[in-house]
Amino acid sequence: MKHSHFIIYKPYGYLSQFTSNDSKQQSKRFLGTLHDFPEGMMAIGRLDEKSEGLLLLTTDGKMSDFINSQKVDKEYYALVDGAITEEAINKLKNGVEIGFEGKKYKTKPCKVVKLNIQPDLPKRSKKIRDARHGPVSWLSITLNEGKFRQVRKMTSAVGFPTLRLVRVRVGAIQLKAMTPGSVLEVEMFDV
């Protein structure tokens, strides 16, 4: 069986699924409205509704399992509320305690770098608080795990809640100049 693979820029406000039978979600926006995807398509690692950026889609379950395993780095740009401190960055790097499935979980060590200039990202569809209303900081956070809303929980745990979150890289695949809602079909993922 030949599998299909896509790289997309998931826009803010979309769920990382294609449709829903849940009547409470009928007003939500789904990936299936961005493109006519083949039957059996699945997102490899989800982005929550308020997150945006690089999302890989495939019909190959083995490929999905491999990328979702802890072998592949995922890099995020996070705009956080406040002028982040070196102490907070070091805590993030070393792992922080977050809630996951009703229990306490300590995140694995990861790479965290404060970005000195704002990354060149498309404007988000929904306005976000910016530096006019108090200091903000941009971070690059690279993880090789992916718990539900992990980056948001991590930055909140050190006192700097996330205002905007964009996944910019999965392994060697980068968001580059893609724009929200764009879809690129590829032969294979080179992660």
From TrEMBL:
Transmembrane segments: none
InterPro entries: PsdUridine_s_RsuA/RluB/E/F_cat, PsdUridine_synth_cat_dom_sf, PsdUridine_synth_RsuA/RluA, PsdUridine_synth_RsuA/RluB/E/F, PsdUridine_synth_RsuA/RluB_CS, RsuA_PseudoU_synthase, TruA/RsuA/RluB/E/F_N
Highest taxon listed in the record's lineage: Bacteria
Keyword rRNA-binding: no
First-level EC class: isomerase
The keyword Isomerase belongs to this UniProt entry's keyword annotation: yes
Example of a GO biological process term: rRNA processing
UniProt domain Pseudouridine synthase RsuA/RluA-like: residue ranges: 5-157
Keywords: Isomerase
PANTHER family: PSEUDOURIDINE SYNTHASE FAMILY PROTEIN-RELATED (PTHR47683), RNA-BINDING S4 DOMAIN-CONTAINING PROTEIN (PTHR47683:SF2)
Stated family: Belongs to the pseudouridine synthase RsuA family.
Name of the protein in its database record: Pseudouridine synthase
